[in-house]
Design goal:
The N and C termini lie far apart (about 70 Å). The chain contains two helices and no strands. It is an all-alpha fold.
Length: about 70
Amino acid sequence: MSDPTNKDEQPGQAKQDEEQDMIHVEAQERLGAGLKTMYHNVLQEPLPEDMLALLDKLDDSDSSSGSGSPSNE
């Protein structure tokens, strides 16, 4: 049975903890790079026609009710 206060076991545990932290950092970096690539690719895609039509409708409704809407100043 191992003694948690044994100083001989602590450096090994510290090294293992450090290795786990490095693995987590590397995984986060890979995920971040993947997400960045994915979002970049999405930004390059054109908007579908139905989405453009919906945005036009929203713009039209905003401009027709513009005098009664509150200002964001």
